[in-house]
Amino acid sequence: MVLESYAPGGQAGASSLIENFFGFPSGVRGGDLTYRAQLQAYRFGARFATPAQALSLTFSEGDYGASLQAEGCNATLRAKCVLIATGAQYRRLQAEGREEFEGRGVYYAATGREGQLCRGSTVIVAGGGNSAGQAAMFLSEGAEKVLLVIRGDGLAKSMSSYLSRRVESKENIEILANTEIRRMTGGKALEAVELENTKTHERRTVQTRAVFSMIGALPCTEWLPPEIERDAKGFIKTGLAVAGAPAWKNMNRPPTPLETSRPGVFAAGDVRSGSVKRCAAAVGEGGTAVEGVHEVLGTYA
Prior knowledge:
By secondary structure, this protein is an alpha/beta fold.
């Protein structure tokens, strides 16, 4: 049984074009990819409940160790295994017009593809953490100029010292402190961004075709009980990181790589602590988790 609160595929399904997924050299629309995935799952016997949102997860002894309370299908589902793949929601920039340029100028990862798109131009990176600093350094190798937009006074409080020194010394990186993005404009793709200094309230317009939002992500884990251990940011711990959890003390086996602090409950994709935030990586983790599911189900046979 697959519970989907909105539509199959999550953020991947909402992507206008996925160009780094194996087997699609020209890219594939997120909706097309997830539609095919759903048909494939149907073929193997999966049942979908959409829209249906998991509201709570409880545990009990016996063959059916987990119960999910779901809204939308008005049911309590009893399961031998649960795979949590609820993903994460990237924090969105509160800028006018931003939603028009998702995937067409507003990006949440700086990969080789984006680096090629930005070569020789001015780009903006929003954020003051390590991910923003790493993105700025990477993009600076090909971009003419990188504007690092941060809300605070400097990088010292939010970025590792070794990285902030590198960013500050890079000639084509300009740090814009106390600055926020207010407006995005363009035609079919992003063309310009309006910035505001929050201290002086002075505004300037920058011609750019790429804004990289590196202001964090929120995992969709607020519905989970304390028995499912999470890291400081709320992402689900798995594998060796949960081997010392109370539920594992009397088990005659260690947790499988994607098993959580509760035996028989797995996590895969963006919701998992330490995951690579890529569609292909999430699919791979799903396959690895299912191998663990088969191992657990074998103990019930």
